[in-house]
Amino acid sequence: MGSSIFLQSNSLLESLIHLSNEVSSIEKLPSIQVRNVSTMLRRIKVLTSLFEEIQESNNPMLPPSSVLCLSELFSVIRRVKSTMEGCKNGSSLWGLIQTERLSNQFHVFVKEIARALDILPLSLLTVTVDIKEQIELLHRQAKRVELYVDPKEIQTRDVLLTLMASEKNMFDVETVKHVFNSVGLKTVLDYEEEMSKLEDEVHKQAGTGGLIVVSNINKLISLVSYAKSMVFNEESEENDVRQVSGSVGKSTSASFNVPDEFRCPISLDLMKDPVIVASGHTYDRSSIAQWINTGHYTCPKSGQRLIHMALIPNYALKSLVHQWCQENNIPLMECLSNAESERKTCEKAVDHISATKVAIDSVKRTAEFVVGKLAMGSIDIQRQAAYELRLLAKTGMDNRRIIAEAGAIPFLVTMLSSNDPRTQENAVTALLNLSIFDNNKVLIMAAGAIKNIVDVLESGKTMEARENAAAAIFSLSMIDDFKVTIGAHSQAIPALVGLLREGTTTGKRDAAMALCNLALYNANKLKTVAAGAVPLLIELLMDDKAGITDDALGVLALLLSCPQGLEAIKKSRPLVPLLIDLLRFGSAKGKENSITLLLGLCKDGGEEVARRLLINPRSIPSLQSLATDGSPKARRKANALLRLLNRYCSQSHNPIG
Prior knowledge:
The chain has 657 residues and is an all-alpha fold. The protein folds into six domains: 2-149, no CATH class; 152-231, no CATH class; 260-313, Zinc/RING finger domain, C3HC4 (zinc finger) (Herpes Virus-1), CATH 3.30.40.10; 362-447, Leucine-rich Repeat Variant; 450-531 and 543-561, Leucine-rich Repeat Variant (Alpha Horseshoe), CATH 1.25.10; 573-656, no CATH class. It has helices at 9-24, 34-56, 64-89, 92-97, 99-118, 129-144, 151-165, 173-182, 188-205, 211-231, 247-255, 285-293, 315-327, 332-350, 357-376, 379-392, 397-405, 408-415, 421-434, 438-446, 449-459, 463-476, 480-488, 492-502, 505-518, 522-530, 533-541, 549-559, 563-570, 575-585, 588-605, 607-614, 619-629, 632-651, and strands at residues 274-276, 282-284, 312-313. A three-stranded antiparallel sheet has the order 2-1-3. The longest helix has 26 residues, at 64-89. It is flat. Residues 257-331 form the U-box domain.
């Protein structure tokens, strides 16, 4: 019952009565789910009578189980209200296609009411006998209620699906009118409002509903647009053409069997000016420009977020379209002139698009909706919501800020303890992405996340979850105070060392980078050495497949300043010749850290390390080359090491030339 809200008895009852009256006072019922909605309203009216009698009894102390029951009923009725409003204010045609899912949703609500009433102690409440009998009857009926799916809606839905699959010029207009009338679409205004609602649904489903869902909604938009032009043709022919489709494309599609590859995925009409968007998909310029200008920032077909808004002409496809137009005697100049006019208009709008207020508001609404699913959804819904936030937080500082402001972080932290592998992985990755925004680092730490993140790092359900936990620690440890906090957790550094041993190349790199950050704080150096990092890091230096040479060298160079670290490093016999080779073949950063290690070992390791350097024929040429051509830091340290080695040679009467 994690979604329950526990209020004081009086305020809980007031909220329940207010909410129930809001639901009961719905004036116009939706044109779909009529029976399920009307029976649900009757149940809520009976419950409202119960709430009012309990309130009038002025009982200062309600039994705890009744408060729990009322809290659950509040949660259920609130979701009933949301679903009813969706049926009433959303797309009727899309609701018709979703009729089985919506019916099941109402059935679940009734079962939840029954489960809440299971714990209602009616005998302990001061209510009339009449109300008790009504509630007992409601309880019995709710417990044995069966799923009801309106057979008429199923039949109409099947006809609608057939219409969607048909060519536009192949279906009967009267059939379309009958289907549309059945869901309340009777006037031109009804058709236009339905298209607007469908477009909102496309935006809602983009990135979450999948390609098939978005494609079906786009087919509905095209069907409504075409039906509008056919049904109301006699009244006003000029108003028949949707702005998104264009007059030429409309008449072309109606008169000719346009090849699918020449149709715009949005309007389903002939593409006059095909352009490619960032996702690689092609659309007609006017259609995709209108899509972008209304605040959408995803590819309508794939749901992929568009990393830029440039529209690149698809000249090859445009040439094929023009060839097809010529072969079918379609007026080419008309297509070209309309396309050119639309192109200029669209370019003005699209070329100046950036992170506009529309886009930010869209992200805000999305974030609030998804966080709501985190808070109140089932396990499956929470898993999906965490995944959506993971994707939304992947790019853009504004996105990361808005998601945090919507209250996502505490819920994500809690979900790190989930037993579901995907939920845990999505939650830790979402937190990693959010942590890139510096202020979110503070919020994540304030939410007590570090314990849960370390638990995932140590024993996460998937390797990806463990690796992303390491990356999150690296990100959080960018703030100096958090280096101390993270290092103080007894398992944080040992868990990073464990991932250094067991992870993939990416995981090893994330672990090494996190250790490098943490080791900037002196107290963490000793813990890193104690966790057995030194021999493992040296082993990784010798492993070509590990791919983390520079990161491993960086950690070793930091541990060198710790006495325990120096002792552990000195014990490695293969390290010195390995570092000499890295002076020659390593990256610029690798050379700097190699020379740092060699200089430190010579200073503290004395003649033994110097002797091993001097007897290696590659060491002096490599040092001399670095002293001449290396970075300023590398040159300085190479010269210092050459002087040190020269001093040892002078003492042995054999100076370096």
